Amino acid sequence: MSVAPEQLETMRREAQAAVRALRLRKAVLDDDSIDVILRGARSHYAWSDRPVPNEVLGAIYEITASGPTSMNSCPARFVFVTSPDGKDRLAKSLKAKNIDKMRTAPVTVIVAFDLAFWTRLPFLFPQEDRRSMFEGKTAHIEATAFRNGTLQGAYFMIAARAMGLDVGAMSGFDNASVDREFFAGTTLRSNFLINLGYADETALFQKLPRFPFDDACSFA
């Protein structure tokens, strides 16, 4: 998809105006909003049986898709595992201690990335055809897909919290098993899992420590 120079300039001006208007409407988030998405958020392990409507999942994806990725590459793909059959298939790959967490969650999201993301760049990045930056460069493709797919997974978690849901990310599973079960014959690879729904807070323990600024940050 090509964009005429004059159309591109109009789109740029509109985008710049939209950013300025947003900054005027909401310069910073209030403390409660920050608490919901990060500072007061928790990883959850137990779930109520309240279902998550598909419309909410769609809204979460739309928010996630707006997050930045390099060259707007958008390599993440999301599989919503909700059916008993899907849960059975996914359970084959999980460590034993994670199976109940997954089965009781209304939704478990397989956050994956597409190694063929670069073939869609003419649509995603119409200013310039940059497929040549990736074609035949396996290591560069894998690094870009994994890095940006992980970013999008994090955006998804924040978006879900912003939409009133609770999340519990999981990495205690065998990626190769998930890939065989869900992505055989495709260019998709699994990254991590997210249990999603409305939490049962009685399973929570105290929030664990975080490093203070001076331990984790520096200036150069």
User: What is the tally of beta strands?
Assistant: 4
Share of helix, binned: 40-55%
Number of helices: 9
Proportion of strand residues: 5-15%
- Rg (CA only): 20 Å
Oligomer state equals single chain
Give the termini separation. 41 Å
* Average pLDDT, all residues: 96
* H/E element sequence: HHHEHHEHHEHEH
> Tell me about the biggest sheet?
4 strands, antiparallel
Which class of secondary structure composition applies to the elements?
alpha+beta
What does this structure look like?
Helix 3 (54-65) crosses helix 7. The N and C termini lie far apart (41 Å). The longest helix has 25 residues, at 138-162. The chain has helices at 5-25, 31-39, 54-65, 84-91, 96-104, 121-124, 138-162, 175-182, 213-216; strands at residues 76-81, 107-114, 166-170, 188-197. It has a four-stranded antiparallel beta sheet with strand order 1-2-4-3, with helices on both faces. The protein is 45% helix and 13% strand. It has 220 residues and is of the alpha+beta class. The model has no long low-confidence stretch (mean pLDDT 96).
